[in-house]
Amino acid sequence: MQFPSLTPPLARQLAELVLSTRHGDLPALSLEHAKMSLASTLASAAVGYGIESARIVRELEAADGGTPAAALWFDGRRLPLASAARVNAVASDAAASDDSDMRSIAHIGTIISSVALAVGERQGASGRDVLAAMVLGYEVAGRIDESLTPVRMQRGFHGSYSTVFGACVVAGVLLRLDARQLAHAIALSATSIGGMAIAADTSCAREYHAGLAASTGIRAALAAQHGFEGELGVLEQPRGFLDALGGQAREDIVRDWGASWDIVTDMAIKLMPGAHPFHATAEAAANAARAAGSGAVEGAGDGARADNPARVKPGDIARIVVSAAVQWTNFKGDPHPRNLVDAAHSLHYFVAAAIVDDGFSWQHMDEAKMADPVIAALQDKVEFDPAPPPLPDRFPHRHGGTVTLHMKDGAVHRGTCIMPRGSGARGIEWRDVQDKFLHLFPQAGLAPATTTACLDVIAHLERADSMGLLVRLLSGR
Questions:
Q1: What pLDDT score was predicted for residue 295?
Q2: Peptide bond connecting 389 to the previous residue in cis, omega within 30 degrees of 0
Q3: Pairing of strands 70-71, 78-79
Q4: Which terminus of the chain has a smaller tally of CB atoms within 10 A, N or C?
Q5: How far apart are CA 34 and CA 461, in angstroms?
Q6: Is the Cβ–Cβ distance between 58 and 46 less than 8 Å?
């Protein structure tokens, strides 16, 4: 039953905004960021491919079979659209190295990338069509999740509740749905997704959620394409999606469309693994350690680095005090991780490792590194500011942190970082994305030349007539 309304339902408004946006309306930087997101997603998936959770989902979907429509990355097999996107999204998210949104840490990039490549492959879409669909999908997911932040997380709901809209819009745009169909696809997505934050923070459910978001969004678009209809008012009606998840500032979901693009302003590429809310604080810890090593009283600000930073002696540190915006979310994990899931969610580990090794990096997801006795000793010295500064807005993950080292000789050294490297607000450099890709992608086990070949295709994707070459390379052909 449709409820009467003086204005079009929110799902219809979003659909019309998406379909009224011409490719020429999208700034070049938004398309560049889409390419960066795709490169980041593939790099993370190369690591995640061999993780047990990704293997289980891959083999389950392969056993189910179905009409082959899209390739499994690094595998060569082909599965139906939703199945292929699910497998690929799980692999990317499993490694905890995919990109995040700075408002809510939802992994929108993994979802739009896995869906765009799958649907784009089947539809014979051009590179520019795929990139434009990614920008639009990110925009809808980002606007909806901004409304949900932070109440969604406080109520225990995972970011899959918003990333599904990225999947739905990407698929809908590439399937060339009309406004009515896309509106119903959005409505169906809202009523068919799930995911609990506590499970994502403590287990491999994180990547399970990513797979659900990718596959559910595609299935919603396909159902709408075939005439299936839902409740178009599901987003804004009483007891609907926004009510259930604590949506705020709802008018902003459609306000000022096109004035800026979320993939430019709010996307952040992970340049280190693990939970993105900890990345700025890890940078702050490394800055503080450099300050201590050089004898300075105050650490430098965002991104300051020395060519050959002096190393602080961990044994000279008495206390490590963290004052981070993420403390307002009660999300900091436990010290002494022993596996990837634990390490990805341990702020103690991020801080201690960054001090010892002059930064947190890909090596720190290795279990041998987690057992490093020097890092372990420092984790026991980490404590948290009992009264961290109040946040300037409701988005805790935008505001980084400060790490203060209290030395045994009485000296005090601080480092602060508000936005981590790789974040849109600070500026994302292709050089950093390429370094990440070149470091991680070879772990997929493809022929060595494939790494640089894939990177080159992605860097010039807007010129491609189809996804054919990239898909062949990712399939090992």
A1: 65
A2: no
A3: antiparallel
A4: N
A5: 10
A6: no
Residue 462 DSSP one-character state: G
C-alpha distance across the termini of the chain, in Å: 50
Contact 136, 173 (CB under 8 A): yes
> What is the reported pLDDT for 107?
95
Average pLDDT per block of 10 residues along the chain, 477 residues long: 65 98 96 98 97 97 97 96 98 94 94 98 98 98 96 92 97 98 98 92 93 98 98 97 96 97 97 93 96 64 46 94 91 90 94 96 95 96 95 91 97 96 94 97 96 98 98 91
DSSP symbol at 423: B
The encoded tokens of residue 44 equal 């993370």
Residue 60 contacts by C-beta under 8 Å, 6 or more apart in sequence? none
- The CA radius of gyration of the chain, in Å to the nearest whole number, is 22
How are the residues of the chain apportioned to helix, strand and coil, as percentages rounded to the nearest 5?
55, 5, 35
